[in-house]
């Protein structure tokens, strides 16, 4: 099992979803630990429960503060607690765009509707009034636009003819308590899942011109150029030769650059077995917070270093626009 993710949970209210996440984190094989419960309401019920369970808590009212200032205080608590992911569980504050951008892909929310239906408030009332057969809840990534990020998982809840927003809301919460821990666990484990990581590398590599995939020494590799004269510009290694790493291997300019990278950022780069000797660097992928833009840039650079001139010229021309 890989290192566990560390999550900070933000709440504004009773915190029943927080409790579900916390108790699930204590079951065997949970891929995450709860390291902080933070709130914009100093009297949020969930804070007491978290404290009772020995989890660090933090509370700061947003009253009289700008959104940015309040976000900054919350963020400091998250960073101090060593959390790598923020999970919103009934946190009734909109986060500033800058905050969301800094934590891209690392803020998860649960919303009490079947998104994209009923963003915002009064979701159960709106579902009932629309005559929907089902309400439910969605777990999604947070992006600057409200309730609009990628949906990771949903749970449906049948609506009864005599349901009120309150009665429906109660059942939706029961479903949320099942859904949220599972969805968070799945999302956080995919960062360590070789198939998922290979998929991402593959998508980036094959988006480059005239590329194809071919096995090399039993591992997936990516080539540029024709079937006959093509050259490898990337390899994917899943814990090769006793290494702990799942990694993308790309070409550096040579041993000096390789060793500098490894020395400066050993949490990101390593010198892979065999390939390292000829200047390939490994980018570690099975860790929290991988910067996929950086992986994409490396793949492009590596592609460029072996691609035939007719292709790089085209690419240079395209880059000018
Ligand atoms: C949950 O139903 C959650 O989906 C909702 O608040 C409730 C929090 O309950 N979230 C939103 O409406 C977000 N816009 P809890 O404090 O008992 O977990």
Query: What sort of overall outline do the alpha carbons produce when their principal axes are compared?
Result: elongated
Small-molecule binders here are: glycinamide ribonucleotide
| Euclidean distance between termini CA atoms | 45 Å
User: Average pLDDT, to the nearest integer?
Assistant: 95
Query: Strand content of the residues, in percent?
Result: 15-25%
Poorly predicted runs are none
Which strand order does the major sheet show? 3-2-1-4-5-6-7
| H/I helix tally | 10
Give the helix/strand class.
Answer: alpha/beta
Q: Helix content range of the residues, please?
A: 25-40%
The description of the largest β-sheet is: 7 strands, mixed
Work out the number of β strands: 13
Name the helix and strand elements from N-terminus to C-terminus, one letter apiece: EHEHEHEHEHEEHHEEEEHEEHH
Instruction: Provide the gyration radius in Å.
Output: 23 Å
């Amino acid at each position: 099992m890989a290192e566990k993710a560390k999550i900070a949970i933000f709440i504004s209210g009773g915190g029943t979803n927080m409790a579900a996440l916390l108790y699930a984190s204590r079951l065997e094989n949970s891929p995450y630990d709860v390291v902080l419960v933070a709130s914009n309401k100093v009297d949020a019920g969930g804070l007491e429960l978290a404290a009772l369970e020995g989890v660090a808590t933090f509370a700061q009212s947003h009253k009289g503060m700008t959104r940015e200032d309040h976000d900054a205080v919350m963020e400091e608590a998250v960073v101090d607690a060593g959390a790598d992911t923020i999970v919103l569980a009934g946190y009734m504050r909109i986060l500033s765009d800058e905050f969301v951008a800094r934590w891209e892909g690392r803020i998860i929310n649960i919303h009490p509707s079947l998104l994209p239906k009923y963003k915002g408030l009064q979701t159960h009332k709106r579902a009932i009034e629309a005559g929907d057969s089902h309400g439910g809840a969605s777990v999604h990534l947070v992006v600057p636009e409200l309730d609009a990020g990628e949906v990771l998982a949903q749970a449906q809840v049948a609506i009864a003819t005599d349901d009120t927003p309150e009665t429906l809301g109660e059942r939706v919460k029961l479903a949320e308590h099942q859904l949220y821990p599972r969805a968070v666990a799945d999302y956080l484990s995919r960062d360590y899942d070789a198939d998922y990581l290979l998929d991402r590398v593959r998508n980036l590599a094959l988006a480059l011109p005239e590329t194809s995939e071919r096995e090399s020494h039993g591992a997936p590799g990516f080539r540029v150029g024709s079937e006959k004269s093509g050259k490898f510009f990337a390899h994917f290694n899943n814990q090769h030769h006793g290494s702990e790493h799942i990694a993308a291997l790309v070409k550096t300019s040579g041993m000096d650059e390789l060793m500098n990278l490894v020395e400066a950022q050993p949490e990101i780069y390593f010198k892979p077995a065999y390939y390292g000797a000829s200047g390939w660097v490994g980018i570690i992928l099975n860790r929290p917070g991988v910067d996929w833009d950086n992986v994409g840039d490396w793949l492009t650079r590596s592609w460029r270093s072996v691609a035939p001139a007719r292709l790089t010229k085209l690419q240079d021309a395209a880059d000018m626009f």
